[in-house]
Amino acid sequence: MIKDTENSDLNKDRSDAQPEKKSKTILVTIHGTGAGDPTKDKNSWWQEESDFLEQLGQRLELSPEQVKIVPFLWEEGPNSEASRRKAGKRLYKLLRSYDDLNQDYYLIGHSHGGSVAYHALLQSVAEDKSLKGLKCWCTVGTPFLEYKRNKFLFQRITGWRLGLYIMTFTSFVFTLWAYFNDFRNIDPDFLLELDPYFLLFWPLVHVFFLVRERRRGHAKSSAKRTWFTEKQKKMVAEQYFDNWLGLCHPEDEAVSALTNIKDINERIMKPDLLMGLIPIAKLIVIAIVGWLLTGGGILSNLVDPGAEAILYSLVFIILVVLLSIIGTILKVFLLLIGTPLAWKINKMVWSEVKTNAWGDDLVKESISKIAAYPANFDAKFAERMPEIVAAPLREHSSKSAIKTLVKVREILGMTVNQDKRQNKKGAVDLRSNLSSSLTWEELIHTSYFAVDNFIDLIAIGLHRAGFTELKNDFVSTPEREQLSAWYDSDSTS
Q1: Could you read off the pLDDT of 271-289 as tens digits, one per residue?
Q2: What's 412's DSSP letter?
Q3: Using an 8 Å Cβ cutoff, are 142 and 115 in contact?
Q4: Can you give the pTM of this predicted structure?
Q5: For 359-477, where are the alpha helices, taking DSSP H only?
Q6: Residues 6 or more apart in contact with residue 397 via CB below 8 angstroms
């Protein structure tokens, strides 16, 4: 078992405790989104007492005196890119403290934990301070979200700054318009007097915000920096590509879903969404027209008092004709309104779905690409997992999915055991029962650390990066020798 008894308190300052002045090799484990509660499950892969780290210790020559396990707790809220970047800054500070003690360290990040590690590397490049002690950073099933700065300046400013920008720009446009169109009701002397001021305001404001945004984008201070530049991303690839170990199953559900959802724009609302208003409209027309023609006295003034039968017959004929005409007109009118309305609603719904799925809460940047590897990186190992690892992962998740499906079938009332899961009101609590039936091993994305062959793959990768020696009995099997050879194969280079 790999355990550092001197750092057992996972809640201490959210993993920001200063490292001891010892020559231990440090392994930093970084959890993914929604998996950072140390009190929820003591066996989570990133915790010191987890089965994964126990299994890793059976493959590598490790001891508490040589290796220090540091679980990095970072999540402070829901799925959020801003939260991941903030965590990256914290992780960078922690790694820098290890550099100050001349310690070697290795990172393993699962899912968006890998994104946090990547942001720490970006931080090091932005501050021009290389992480000297970083020997290997391993990302497992990480969907890397590549952001690009919004093209137009007004897309990158918010609050009162945006209000000032819009106001000065409007004044600029109006002044030019008035000047070149020679409005008769505007005094030319008045225009000549104000033109220079109105024409200067917006260019000055534009240049000011442009310079300000550029300085903030290139600032070395993390407090002032707004985004990471394309140059900085390229520098990360140059400095940290060689010690990157990116492991991702080609069928990883999270990576695939977040990648493919970008192009999903399936129609939810149809152009005829307002057609249901037609019966209501007809009813209103019948009521109004009927009252006008009878109770309102329009027809009663035109016929003899004794001719009520003729009156009501005329009303009926008029209503039938009107309803036919009005129905046709309403269909055309509601279709003309419903088509752009449905398009807008669909766009808004899918935009919200994508934003929540990505955790995209940045204002100044927009997502341009999602992949299993960072920007400017070659795919390397990512998406090229050897079949002797990919197949067991696929099989493991499939078996778990079948077991869960049986539970779901029972919960949905397809078995005779329904009475055992009834609440006080006598009804089955579907939500709580369905939630409790999930183990999350139904997905490949959350099954990596439960599969022996994958643990073998990580152990060999860490060993090759200089982490520690493999145990003698570990390297003896043909499968493990095949995994080692995979790292050297041309297909992964």
Answers
A1: 777 777 777 777 777 677 6
A2: T
A3: yes
A4: 0.71
A5: 387-411, 430-437, 452-464
A6: 441, 442, 443, 444, 447
